[in-house]
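#data-curation
PF: Archiving a pair of folding outputs for the training set. Convention for this channel: one message per protein, sequence first, structure tokens after, nothing in between. First:
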Amino acid sequence: ALPILKEITRRLKSIKNIQKITKSMKMVAAAKYTKAERSLKPARVYGTGALALYEKAEIKAPEDKKKHLLVGVSSDRGLCGAIHSSVAKTIKTEIAALSKSGKEVMIVGVGDKLRGILQRTHGDHILLTFKEVGRKPPTFGDASIIATELLNSGYEFDQGSVIFNRFKSVISYKTEDKPIFSLDTVSGSESISVYDDIDADVLRNYQEFTLANIIFYTLKESTTSEQSARMTAMDNASKNASEMIDKLTLTFNRTRQAVITKELIEIISGAAAL
């Protein structure tokens, strides 16, 4: 029984250490979440503003256009529930549906976790990946870098979508997508002629700005969702650790008492034999 006691003591010690880590990670995530949520409200304006033109002008890519682009937004950090896997799952479903209808699909992965999930199964579809996402709050500069790289990648997509986790509340988020279109698709759209004084240069600048806006907005939404999910995940982990500690402490005490009782019985039996 003594080796069992040693084993339980060792396990208790390691679970208590893990609990310390999960508790402090929850506190850090809570602080980052508060900050992220505060900066999300102004960022939402960029998103709705950028998407308003697409909606009002009823821009759609012609059916015969084959090239599609999917931008998945996640990050480099784990331990946050299903944040990355839900984006990856949506991307996989989209690829399957688009490939079936004969379209060519490429992926841009924002965040290393997403690349890790998709590399094995859809490695040949990956066009670009971006690392160092999620350490610091995303800025408009980060979004413009991603947008510029995307436009300079040489992949002439006709339309696409940005897939990200939209923040709903502290305990929930929803994986959604927002549309993006190429310059040709926008300029070739019937309703765009309603806006007068739009020459090719203005449209190109606006298109680049819109792309950066949409990426910036989705980055902000994703970060807030990720921090809130990490907070919940770490809270659950700490609770689970507490339960395990209680169970192990009980087992430890029972085993210890059994050892003492056994030794007492041996002493008494020995004394009686004399």
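PF: Second:
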Amino acid sequence: AVVSTQSGHYGRGTGYSFMFVDVSKNVAGQSLSAPGSCWREFYVNNMMECRQTFCTNTKAEYSFWLSTAIEDSMTHDSYPQSTSYAEDPELVKRFISRCAVCVSDYKLMAVHSYTKDLPTTEAASLSQSGWEIAYSGYSFSFQTGAGRGFGSAFQGHGSCLKLFSPINIAQTNGQDVRWVSTNFKSYWIMDYSHLDGMNPYEAAYDEDWSVVTKQDRDAFIAKRLGKCYVMKKTKKAIALRGFYYADPDA
């Protein structure tokens, strides 16, 4: 579905959520907080490689797009298998996240708790200097494709996603589009409190959580997944060091 704008924001166009491109193991991307991540159209083979005397398509190009979030009734098997965009473009677009570019007088900022609980204390402190909660979400770090990836800065609202989904990207290569691969990995902030008492000199903490079914995902979200708020500044705020990057000219 097409995204609606937040209250107090004005839409300037809708599109499809682009994340990053990997060409010959060189990665370039757009933060989900930036308008450059919202492309007016979804299309494969979206890059040309140019040298001094010619430009050409490259078979080494992989582009990655934010996928639609997994629904309660779905598992990873509910997403299409490797699909040709040329043969069924509407099926492909059905599983690509939509976006909207919005203009507002507000400034947006993500605040993370780094725990399984929402950062209510930090939000209350910020509210005293002109910030309000816009929405809550889950603390997203970055996404990888075929071994390389891209993410969003933690102060940006693109790092606080409203929905958690273990299926997070769609990869295009040529006309082929796929959502499920052992290469695809998304990284999220976890609740650190359960590590209390762990010896830091021992091997890395290792724990597996199934996220196949809705029940599995609900348990993971409740017990391990980091939470966040996206805050909006509705009047001139006092800079609070440690919470956000403040524009000195704001």
